[in-house]
Amino acid sequence: MTSESEAAARDQLWMDRAVARIWKLIWAIGAAGAVALVAWRGWWWGAGWVIGTAVSALNFRWLKQLVLAIGGEAAKPRQAVFLGMRYVLLGSGAYVILRFSAISLPAALSGLFVSVAAVIVEIILELAYARNGTVDY
């Protein structure tokens, strides 16, 4: 029993560190992309990227909460309804912001993929450092 609980604690620590690295990568990729787009295409593209990055980070947070809720002891119906409605909320908010402003729609849509890029970078880092077990950099 002790070895199973130690293994579970080790796995949880590994997962917590991976999620923390993904959060850092989301904001680093978002900031780098915003600076690059402002320099290349102007403030409206940078603003679109920042909005897309923020929505991407919010969606990542909600997905993390959903995973924790599924794995938890008691399901909360209110939380399940809110998590199910998140795409309606995100879509309507994006429509209002982007329909009535000069912010770039392509930049905002591109920014939505920042969390996906962060997860892919984390996978590559874990594969690169898996040989010697030093993934916690």
Provide a concise account of the structure shown.
The chain has 137 residues and is an all-alpha fold. Helices cover 83% and strands 0% of the residues.
What does this structure look like?
By secondary structure, this protein is mostly helical. The chain has one domain. 83% of the residues lie in helices and 0% in strands. It has helices at 2-41, 43-71, 77-84, 86-99, 105-111, 114-129. α1 runs antiparallel to α2 (43-71) and α2 packs parallel to α5 (105-111). The longest helix is centred in the first third of the chain and has 40 residues, at 2-41. The radius of gyration is 18 Å and the shape is flat. The chain starts with a helix and ends in an 8-residue tail after the last helix. The model has no long low-confidence stretch (mean pLDDT 84).
Keywords:
137 residues, mainly alpha
The residue-averaged pLDDT reads: 84
> What proportion of the residues is helical, as a percent range?
over 70%
Question: Which consecutive residue ranges, at least 5 long each, have pLDDT under 50?
Answer: none
Number of helices: 6
C-alpha end-to-end distance = 31 Å
In terms of structural class, how would the helical and strand content be classed? mainly alpha
Shape: flat
Estimate the strand proportion: under 5%
Number of spatially distinct domains: 1
Rg, please? 18 Å
Total strands: 0
Main beta-sheet annotation: none
Order of helices and strands: HHHHHH
